[in-house]
Amino acid sequence: MKTLFKLVVNAGNHNRTHCPVSYWISSESPLLQGSGIELLRLTTAAGEVVPLQCEESEGNVTLHWIVQKLDAGESAVFVVEAGDKRQEAVEGLTLIEKENRMDVHIGGTYFTSYVYDAELAKPYLGPVIGPYGESFTRLDFETKEHPHHRSVWLAVGDVNGVDLWNEPKDRHGIQTFDGFKERVSGPVFARLTASQQWCNNGKRPQMAEKRTMTFYNTPAGERFIDLDTELRALGRIEFGATKEAGPLGIRVAESMKAENGGTIVNAFGSVGEAECWGQRAPWCDYYGNVGGQTLGIAAFDHPDNMDFPTFWHVRDYGLLAANNLYFLGGKLFQKGETIRYRHRIYFHEGDTLAAGVAGKYHDYIHPPVVKLEEQS
């Protein structure tokens, strides 16, 4: 192996565990010495091989890996090497297409599915399997209470007067799946970009959606899904000031909900529906008993989102949703305007403190800084 260059990862002000990082470099950079991305390898300074996933796009090469542990104030050196043959594949993430869904496996174990069944009003992610084989989320089709709450979904309850959140018979809007624009998998992450149309109850498209979902190769008790959604108005669009909205909606497992002994906590330390519902916060966590273990789901609001930090529509019966529309009023968008929402969902073992939810939020908004090591 030939050393090409070294990268220094600085933890900054926060402890890091199983934290995704990336670094980009020009495809024409002399540092690559003409090596193709399939020949690159990453090691620690001590020579331990680190799973590396490389992408080449628009004249740049982006290197992705996961920092396993790095304490606040510390730094670590990683060595980028090149060989003369393709590296053996590391078992990471795989995408398996089945009828009406795409399954996501991590380390050979099923994690979740993106389901886009045309018989349903909207796509969803679920179930989301935890470290002990039970789902973090509720997903059953027999429950009559809020049957439209399917695991993890995106929707708004009033789009030009049409309900895309609830599903009253023959009166609701639908989200139609048009296919995948991108499918990427590898040792570090998998990415799905789905194309959808948000339609009224006459199936006339109102908005075009590009939904990007990224999954990471982290332990089963510390898993993330990044959601990056772009909605393009196909005409004049008005979001109503509705309580039945997200756009992000999550329904926690029945045994996790507060009515069954679970706990709701927000970023400011407020506890329970009475303190958290209708309050703004950068994140909100919901944890409780699932299969005899404490598991939780934390939803993170990105600082670039409209009206950050979001208000939370979070309920003792098991709903965790980000919703500004009800509390700030509706929104008007003209034809061609784009609305973007970004969220990270952290599926964790333990309660809010044990899972380090506050620190994981900083991994999302203040990731470690990666720099090229200066040559002496």
TrEMBL record:
InterPro entries, A to Z: DUF6807
Pfam families linked: DUF6807
Protein name per the record: Methane oxygenase PmoA
